[in-house]
Amino acid sequence: MSLEVAVAAALFVGVIAYAVLGGADFGSGFFDLTAGSSRRGAELRTLVDHSIGPVWEANHVWLIYVLVIWWTAFPESFAAAMTTLVLPLLLALLGIVLRGASFAFRKFSETLEQARLFGVVFAASSIITPFFFGTIAGAIASGRVPLDGSGDRWSSWLNPTSLFGGVIAVGTCAFLAGTFLVADARRGGHDRLAEELRTRALVVGAVTGAVVFAALWPIHEDASTLSDGLAGRAAPLVVASALAGAATLGLLWTRRYDVARLTAVAAVAAVVSGWGVGQYPWLLVDEVTIHDAAGATATLQGLLVAVGLAAVVVVPPLVYLLRLTQSEEWSRH
Amino acid sequence: MTPDVVADVLAQLAASTEPEGLMPARQQMALSLGWHIVIACFGVAFPAMIFVMHLRGIRRDDPVALGLAQRWAKASAVLFAIGAVSGTVLSFEMGVLWPGLMGKYGDVLGLPFAFEGLAFFLEAIFLGIYLYGWGRMPPKRHVLMVLPMAAMGIFGAYCVLAVNAWMNVPTGFRLVDGEVTDVQPWQVLFNQHALLQFAHMWLAAYMVTGFAVAGVYAVGMLRGRRDEHHRIGFLVPFVFASVAAVCQPFMGHVLGLGLDERQPSKLAAFELALEEESPAPLRLGGVLVDGEVRGAIDIPAIGSLIAMNSFDDPVPGLDAIPEEDRPPVNIAHWAFQTMVGIGTLLMVAVLWFWYQRRRGRDLLEKRWFLRGAAVAGPLAAVAMEAGWIATEVGRQPWIVYGVMRTEDAAGSYSGLWWLLGATVVVYTAMTWGAVVVLRSMARRWRAGAVDLPSPYAPEVVAGTSGDER
Asked: What is the span of the domain harbouring residue B148?
């Protein structure tokens, strides 16, 4: 593996981690928004708060990781994407700001009115953020971001591939969150809530799976390079994703929630990896390859040192945190 | 103004070669960075104060100190959350506002950001563990979870300052026919200027956070609440702030040495020096109007002493700088003087406090002192902002000193003014939310609430209220 590809792979690991870990946080906002009136939804909202409270900031850092590696390793393509895709990027950013702030504010609200206001902002922005990130992925994957940054500010992300990308992103986030929340609810002893969430997670999963496979057709028409990649090199990942998704639905159906979390993560990781492998060796599809987009060699080497250090010093405490939050001890209400 | 003049000004503006995105990008960056660094100060300095308080609570089995540590931890949860998102805004803005800089120099300046990301990662992880670990972890292990936060806040600040120091004193690359080559990213991370800039900012963070937190308890004492809770709630952060306030002027002086060679235009603007003088006076106040200094008070020779560490070394003047390379002189001069003025005032004030205390007089009994302590936090924040304005505006028109002009870094967007307007709205709302929530937390604590349950339903669901989350 060349140096450039190694760094691109490290970057893409960040994309997958953000899609899975950050995605589950965003998806919790979907369930929070659709939890119903304050009386009916209180139990679920408390669960959401409990479930993502300790981890959302750490999960959020994957986004910073991706941005930093991107601009450091592939600076010109970063500037190009930021210029062409300025609108969806800013809208996603707006969602990130509103979501993070209002989630923290809601936790310490004094009155129900305040909690309601901050809660709606948190939940709504949890949905718009993955949507716009999905459109951005679609824009890059369909070859709409030229290296000189001169892509159309609107049609670059308002097109079939991008819009499907947005919907898929929202769906996969909700699907992930559903399986995690079901498991959390049962561990916390909220059996009635777990049953309710199980039904909703099944529906969300089925719809998202259908959308993912329905999207293959517009992608075929609209983004031929990606489509060829998906049918070729990335085909095993597409199949793996389908299998893992179906398995998750089966496990949810039979109430084996602990295993369902793993297959859900596998399904989403496979879908996202399918995108990455499908568009390889392009960084910006049809515009610039990973190899040509790379910056200075010394910098790429430095980045790999940073990534290696991260693997050593960040992953163990991250695993510790995630284990704590998934433990019985921290689940007790 | 007559219509002619207006038309003339408009024509000049229209004819200017500045890219459309330059002015709004500048304002946008100033707003979002100026907002973020205040919050970032808490990320850098608060964990150390929480650690000391928490440790005191455990060591002396002191419930008051433990209670304070727990409250501070909860307040920091709110501050860190808005710090995390406003920091994310900045990383987007690097690309959105300054594509010229990032496209060309992204691989030169990027490595420190990668390490900053690493630091932020650890900080966020241990914040999660610490905040949610109250009552769930053995106390001795729990308190140790603050230490990585404190260390990483400091390391992360160093990394960001390394990039800023690089913008002031670029290194780690060569320009050959306009192409960036021979990139040495480690040289940027460990550039010789970074440590000094970092140290100055680090002390500023302790001043802002220490004075602000102490000020909260000073206000409480002014309102007659004079218990142990308020006494140590004031003193612990005040000790941090005092040490920082006394060291800061010296640190700033050391940082400023050599500025005449690094950035003579910045020094000349700070000193409002039109021409080289030897020895140079210290020029207090004053504005530059039509090439003349008006209203300044000159103190002979002190300018040379402060800027050059000597009684007669000349301070360079603006006349040596081509007009198109000069920064906005008045802004840089006033920002610099504001910073120095407030910094000196705070240093004198804390020295006086500790001197009196040594003599057995407790100034905490004096209302005038408490009033002063209450405004010290905002003052320190103003001084820090002024310092940033001085260093950033003083570097203009360069984004990378001597290498890239700010106008070449900006994009050619239309519509950035709309973005600025939206940002003002969002940041105002975020500030409002934080103030409302923090104040209501304080109010509920005063009323005797301990756990601050989240009110998700008309009546809080039974069993969730005793939660320490």
From this structure: 33-191+414-444
